[in-house]
Amino acid sequence: MVWAAALLLLGVTAVVACRIADLDAVTPVPQLLAFLPWLLAPALLGVFLTLLARWWPGLFWGVVVLGALAWSVGPYGSGGEPTGTPLAHLRVLTSNVEFGGAAPALVPRIRQWKPDVVFVEECEYTCQATLKKVPGYPYRAAVVAGGSAGSLLLSRFPLRATDGVPGTMGMPGAVADVDGHTVRLQLAHPMPPLPGQVSLWRRELGRIRDFAAADTATPTVLAGDFNASQDHAAFRRILTAGRLRDSARLSGAARTASWPAPTAAVFGAQIDHVLVSRDFSATGARFLRLADTDHRALVVDLTLHRHGSR
Fold first, then answer.
1. How far is CA 305 from CA 155, 181, 254, in A?
2. Which of 86, 202, 246, 255 is most exposed, with minimal Cβ within 10 Å?
3. Residues 137-194: pLDDT tens digits?
């Protein structure tokens, strides 16, 4: 029983230590960090076994691990609201449609929620043709490609396409004129941290970080499937470098899971995000279930504020 408790606590300790030390470069650390809050179950089991075995040093160890885990799963990043005068309102939706399969299911959601800007990942040729028929979005930026490489950005606001962020999968970008105010828009979809591809995952998240850091003065919305949660150091560096905040965290949904969609209501990780610069406040984050995709879509209402106290 002591050995079982020790093994459980050792495993949880190793992952929590990596989280605290900002380490996520080696398999299976990034994969386990995605489900960090769920490590509470083996940690509690380990503590229970120490009690049954009357292993008091192990009990102390378990209590320390539980404390470190509780600290680690707290919402990351700053909260609060910008206090400048509101200038514009926009609703943003992001959805990974899984090789285009969920495009037909996304169309009625767009009509229902009427987002002003839509970020669509894994939107291949058929998906882009389907979404082109949705009325009310005369402006778009796209990476036209098959499979998971295609991506699409739809907007009610005028857009000027940019170079986007280079990656294995398409990450288009644009500059929008939101009621006379310039806003940078960038779709995010780095490769997932599959075994043997963690370095590629970190490299592509690093390119997104570089985009975020390149201009912290212009209002920015960076949205998509990041294949990373707040428990990954590579993701937190994007927030820090770009002075960005997670809209779900601002809306009180910091731990609502977006993937895998079939189990997200009870078990999963939040890897789909809408990140915003400090010019924005965010409310009403909603995670939507769509057919034929393993991701839940995310809709959030944003308000752009005048520069000033934040």
1. 20, 10, 22
2. 86
3. 999 999 999 999 999 999 999 999 999 999 999 999 999 999 999 999 999 999 999 9
